[in-house]
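On clarity, I found the account of how folds are encoded harder to follow than it need be. An entry of this sort, consisting of the sequence and the corresponding backbone structure tokens, reads as follows:
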Amino acid sequence: MSISYNKVILVGRLTKDPEVRSTVKGDPVATFRLAVDRQFSSDPNATDFINIVAFGKQAEFASNYLKKGKLILVEGSLRINQWTDRDNVRREKAEIWANRMNFMETKKDEEERIYSNTDIIVEESVHNNNDNNNFIESIDDETDASDYELPEFETDELFGLNFEDLDKDLFSEE
């Protein structure tokens, strides 16, 4: 008697949202692909795209919670499907039949990853090079400073601050 063992553990990101279908009996079946980087490859961009199949409650979990880009762990077994196509050519397809799935990043980690890839456009500002304070002389936008009114301030006796000339200093055209 020989001993055999078939167990696969993968960590990767979904390439698209899972597709859910039903068996003839009405049981849910979810299929999706994981992008798994090769760790020991001379090519830094080497990635394997692995087909995953989940049944029953695992399929419902995949349908409800897994989305494109999510980092997950899939534990299951390797299956090789063999068939003959319409042209009488023998075909094979490898896939993992999942029996366990876990999230590998928190919601906070996911949000940080998403927002770190977002380009932020900052409007250019012109600095007065003659001023040692690097005070921003103007901002390249379409707002007009005359549209805004500053509130009236009184002298703050506690700290000795005087805001009487603030309006004049900020909006002067000098």
